């Protein structure tokens, strides 16, 4: 799945680390002055990140080295974390720490006996610094294994202020108003939405926001764990609501065919690129990184967001994703690895990446001033303020065969629904069939 971006000068971060002061427009970053108690030791950290995300995470690793003396080595797994880590464990080359991007994978690792429970120190910090929902998502059968270090706010609709101004519309607060505003935008010459239908995961995010707001958190939790079936009337209702967008060719850039041929970066380009084709694109906070890094947009000026609007009188949803740090039992340096997780629980560690950009932290003790721009601060504030009403990305909680496989399961079925949204009940039956098979497996 796509994840995030942005950069500050490395020297600025280094200055903050060295001085333990407020720097780069951020809060306290006091990684200097450590006890060097892990001198001579090395930990290996595996994760999905590459490019600018990997470079920014490296700054966190470097800050840990500065504080403790431990050397670090980052290994990129690609998106298929489960398979890669399983192979490394079997080959006797298990990393010490893995940054796991899916709840379902964390649960899988724990049930296979691969994970060490978090230390009492880390657990106490999670209790003090995080909403309990993050502890719940990091726990399996009451034992805390994962620390959510990096989060995504996946209930943000990004828009071109020029496009909305030209159409004379304000950011809407209800789903019906969103579609109405979309028609006004399309009447002014641009399509309303750019939809990344080529990437099935974006369609699961559309569904999840609608479902959370329309059906409510209890139903959301039940569906996420398959305690209710995908043929439940609430699922059919949410698909019907989503279908209002999918079947309206006036609202989507290129219509259904165009959406199915547009990947996530392309969907951002159609709004914020040199030749705009649409006024709005729905996806997580990481849209800002693409708009800024690839298309030179100034976040807050010529690229902005509004919260995903409430559906049918429900509450506005806050769907999140995130990367949880876990310690593998088969790693060669479990003690130093656990020290690293204890470090990641601190606002100090989060401030390093927050200052570099392309990052949100669920750590409520992180000073919002640590973020580099007002829009990111507002997004982070919204995520933290949501507290225990945050719900983790549903497809990331499911077995990968259903919720996280290209060309299969939920991704494929929702792409088919985008192609032909005329039968929500039939689509719900297909989803249930695929889900039942995956959960049974």
Automatic annotation (TrEMBL):
Keyword field: Signal, Transport
Source species, domain of life: Bacteria
Signal sequence bounds: 1-23
Gene3D superfamilies cross-referenced by the UniProt entry: Periplasmic binding protein-like II
Claim: Signal is one of the keywords in the record: yes
Similarity remark: Belongs to the bacterial solute-binding protein 1 family.
Name of the protein: Carbohydrate ABC transporter substrate-binding protein
């Amino acid at each position: 799945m796509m994840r995030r971006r942005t950069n500050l000068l490395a020297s600025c971060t280094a200055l903050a680390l060295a001085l333990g002061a407020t720097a780069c427009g951020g809060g306290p970053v006091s990684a200097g002055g450590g006890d060097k108690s892990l001198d001579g030791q090395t930990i290996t950290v595996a994760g999905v990140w590459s490019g600018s995300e990997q470079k920014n995470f490296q700054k966190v690793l470097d800050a840990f080295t500065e504080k403790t003396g431990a050397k670090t080595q980052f290994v990129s797994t690609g998106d298929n974390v489960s398979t890669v880590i399983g192979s490394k464990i079997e080959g006797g080359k298990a990393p010490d720490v893995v940054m796991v991007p899916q709840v379902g994978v964390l649960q899988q690792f724990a049930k296979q006996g691969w994970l060490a429970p978090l230390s009492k120190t880390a657990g106490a910090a999670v209790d003090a610094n995080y909403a309990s929902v993050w502890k719940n998502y990091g726990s399996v059968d009451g034992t805390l294994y994962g620390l959510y270090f990096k989060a995504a706010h996946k209930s943000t609709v990004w828009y071109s202020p020029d496009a909305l101004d030209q159409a004379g519309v304000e950011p809407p607060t209800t789903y019906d108003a969103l579609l109405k505003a979309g028609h006004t935008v399309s009447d002014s010459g641009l399509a309303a939405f750019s939809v990344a239908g080529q990437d099935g995961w974006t369609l699961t995010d559309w569904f999840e926001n609608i479902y959370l707001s329309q059906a409510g958190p209890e139903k959301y939790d039940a569906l996420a764990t398959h305690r209710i079936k995908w043929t439940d009337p609430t699922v059919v209702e949410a698909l019907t609501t989503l279908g209002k967008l999918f079947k309206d060719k006036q609202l989507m850039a290129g219509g259904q065919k165009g959406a199915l041929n547009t990947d996530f970066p392309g969907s951002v380009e159609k709004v914020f690129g040199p030749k705009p084709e649409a006024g709005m694109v729905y996806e997580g906070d990481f849209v800002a990184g693409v708009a800024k890094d690839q298309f030179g947009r100034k976040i807050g000026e010529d690229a902005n967001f509004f919260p995903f609007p409430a559906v049918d009188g429900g509450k506005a949803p806050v769907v999140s994703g995130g990367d949880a740090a876990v310690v593998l039992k088969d790693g060669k340096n479990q003690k130093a690895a656990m020290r690293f997780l204890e470090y990641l629980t601190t606002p100090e560690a989060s401030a390093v990446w927050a200052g570099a950009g392309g990052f949100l932290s669920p750590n409520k003790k992180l000073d919002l001033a640590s973020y580099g721009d007002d829009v990111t601060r507002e997004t982070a504030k919204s995520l933290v303020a949501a507290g225990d009403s945050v719900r983790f990305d549903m497809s990331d909680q499911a077995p990968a065969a259903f919720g996280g496989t290209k060309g299969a399961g939920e991704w494929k079925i929702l792409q088919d629904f985008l192609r032909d949204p005329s039968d929500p009940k039939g689509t719900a039956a297909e989803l249930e069939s695929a889900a039942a098979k995956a959960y049974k497996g």
